[in-house]
Amino acid sequence: MTSSPPAKRFDWSNLGLRIASAVVIAPAAVGAAWLGGWPYLVLIAIGVALLALEWGGMSAPVAPTRVSAAVTVAVLASVFLAYQDQDVLAWSAVAVGALAAALVARGVAERPADAAFGVIYIAPAAICLVWLRSTDQGHWWMMTLFAATWAADIGAFAVGSLLKGPKLWPRFSPNKTWSGFVGGLAASSLAGLAMALFSVFQLNLIAAAFVGLCVGLATMAGDLWESALKRRFGVKDSGDLIPGHGGLLDRVDGLMFAVVVMAVVRLANIWGWH
């Protein structure tokens, strides 16, 4: 594992910049997800390309373009198949694309397997974003995903900053605390409840809180996983695309895990929702 710079405390001086960036990005994501169709597909495709670019920069700094291009092509192939309701082919394309990316990265990346992992890391989230939006009431499922994910992030930050206390996983993310973890789960559960109470979403309150809880757990797991990856590659941020936030991966790491978990919950249909 490559060593990385020591973790820094939250930089309060750029809080305004972080908020401004979120104000620009969040409406675009919400609007595209609500509309669906080609605007949503285009947004996902752009996101995939940017994530692949950041992945190439982290995992293969000697030849990032080649690795990024391989990951982009592999993931977009699976996304377009999913958009055409070819689910089996879409998931098969992930495996084939991962192998192809590793072959392309041979000779230019220190660990060609990292290129394959980039496909495996990005593609499932992208496929699930397409599938979840295509289900009945898909726009409301997407709104709940966003609400619970963002609530988990905000709740964890606010409660952790206020109460502090024991560290959650200091080896990989020294600033995260158990108090923030509990606060994030409470906030995401409440966000799920709010979506059921103040919308036409067909979820009972218990189911809504359960969905929010699952999304919150996945969001924080995704955040911790990305922290571990950055430590492995020896970088502080995945990139510098978003002012005040770092790279796109730094912003959507939790969402990438959360959408997969929500898709599984939606598919399981344990409460008989439609």
Rg measurement, Å: 18 Å
Segments where pLDDT lies below 50 for 5+ residues? 1-13
Helix content: over 70%
The biggest beta sheet, please? 2 strands, antiparallel
Beta-strand level of the residues, as a percent range?
A: under 5%
Main β-sheet, spatial strand arrangement: 1-2
Q: What is the CA–CA distance across the termini?
A: 45 Å
How does the helix and strand content classify structurally?
mainly alpha
Run of helices and strands:
HHHHHHEEHHH
Put simply, the count of helices is 9
- Tally of discrete structural domains: 2
Global outline: globular
> What is the overall pLDDT average?
86
Instruction: Find the count of extended strands (DSSP E, 2+ residues).
Output: 2
Keywords:
274 residues; mainly alpha; 9 helices; 73% helix; globular; disordered N terminus
Helix-strand blueprint:
Layout: H1 15-35, H2 37-59, H3 64-83, H4 87-105, H5 113-134, H6 138-163, E1 167-169, E2 173-177, H7 178-197, H8 205-233, H9 248-268
Antiparallel strand pairs: 1-2
Helix pairs in contact: 1-2, 1-6, 2-3, 2-5, 3-4, 3-5, 4-5, 5-6, 5-9, 6-7, 6-8, 6-9, 7-8, 8-9
How is this structure best described in words?
- The protein has two domains: 36-134, no CATH class; 136-274, no CATH class.
- The radius of gyration is 18 Å and the shape is globular.
- The protein is mostly helical and 274 residues long.
- The chain starts with 14 loop residues before the first helix and ends in a 6-residue tail after the last helix.
- It contains nine helices and two strands; from the N terminus they run ααααααββααα.
- Strand 1 and strand 2 form a beta hairpin.
- It has helices at 15-35, 37-59, 64-83, 87-105, 113-134, 138-163, 178-197, 205-233, 248-268; strands at residues 167-169, 173-177.
